[in-house]
Amino acid sequence: MRIPCCYCGARGHEEFTYLGDATLARPSTEIGAPADDATAAAWHDYVYVRDNPSGRHRELWQHTGGCRAWLVVTRDTRTHEIHGVEAARDVALAREATHE
Amino acid sequence: MSETSTLWRPPLGDALKIGRHGRRVDRAGVTVDIVRPARAWSLVARRGAADALAIAAEQELGLPWPKAPRYAARGSTFVVWTGPDRWLLVEGPAGMSDSVRATLPAGVTSHVYATDQTDALQILHLSGPRLRDALAKGVTIDLHPRSFAPGNAAITQVSHLTVNLWQISDDPIFGVAVARSLAGSFASWLTASAAEFGLEVRDGADI
Questions:
Q1: Phi, psi angles (nearest 5°) of residue A44
Q2: Phi/psi of residue A97, nearest 5 degrees
Q3: CATH number belonging to the domain at A2-23+41-99, selected among 3.30.2270.10, 3.40.50.300, 3.40.950.10, 3.90.1150.10
């Protein structure tokens, strides 16, 4: 499998480290809010519960053997076909902008 | 400050001894120059300051500032892209005196976080007619002239060691920077990989 890093170009997967599901969003808990059951459940799901999709999946990868950038890679889990690579920083900033 | 002649030891220590190694041939297939930089910095652009840094650096250092995996040099100063908004800036070689050690221009420092890397990195210049054959034993990216040209740079792995690699000229001459702690392992790999072509190691200060 080769991943086209958006900074370095296509590299072998051995230069990258898988860092988890990119679709998860950290629960927005206000500081000091009471730890009620709903909050606890949201955090439990965020930390422990993962889907195991067959097909396209958005994943975090880091180019650890290269530019060290975090990437959001859209990958087909059945064929390893890469459908897109974005800088995780850009994805996070875009997500932040839509929430404001 | 007293003028003392400093005994500089390359970060890789004795792992790469000056002289000829491997196969005995008239002209070594691979030549290594141990570079002694006057100063090396890692630079990280402050938030949102990458464009301002590029303008300041081009004005004050006279270097075309790379915004992609590229290398640029002016005189004995060079810059290598080492990641998004990150660079390696090297001034040197120092020659025989430490008194020429330079500092970063103020116009550049206001846009970056700078960390001194002078003794943290081993920089080598690699050349020779069989250099690409030797590098191909450990480098997984394509260094053929059709895909890697002078001015190109890459961060990649050589025999599982992460290195910065850049091409200086068509001869070919490549530059490589490897962390001090990995320099011995890199030297071991290079000595073994270049042995069949004949390896010559030179003190870069003698260039």
A1: -60, -45
A2: -65, -40
A3: 3.30.2270.10
Closest residue of chain A to B81, computed from CA coordinates: A67
Contacts A8 to B, Cβ<8 Å? 69, 154-156
**Spatial separation of the C-alpha atoms in residues B141 and B84, rounded to whole Å:** 19
- B83 and A14 in contact by Cβ < 8 A? no
| A21 contact partners, CB below 8 Å, separation of at least 6 | A50, A51, A57, A58, A59, A60
Q: Which residue has the tokens 């250092």?
A: B61
Instruction: Write out residues in chain B with pLDDT < 70, as ranges.
Output: 1-6, 93-102, 205-207
Q: For chain B, positions 61-90, list CB contacts with chain A under 8 A.
A: 68-69, 82-84, 86
Count of other CB atoms within 10 angstroms of residue B114 = 16
Residues of chain A contacting residue B84, judged by C-beta atoms under 8 Å apart: 7, 67, 69, 87, 89
Residues found in chain A: 100
Q: A49 vs A21, A56, A61, A73, B49, CA distance in Å?
A: 10, 18, 19, 20, 39
Q: With 90 as the cut, is the pLDDT of residue A14 above it?
A: yes
B77 falls within a domain: yes
Assess A12–B contact: CB distance below 8 Å, yes or no: yes
Best of B88, B152, B156 to disrupt the A interface (most A CBs within 10 Å) is B156
Please name the residue of chain A whose CA is at the shortest distance from the CA of residue B141: A11
Rounded-to-integer distance, Cα B186 and Cα B43, Å: 24
Tokens (6 digits) for B128: 């020779």
Q: Is the pLDDT of residue A5 over 50?
A: yes
Return the pLDDT at B101.
44
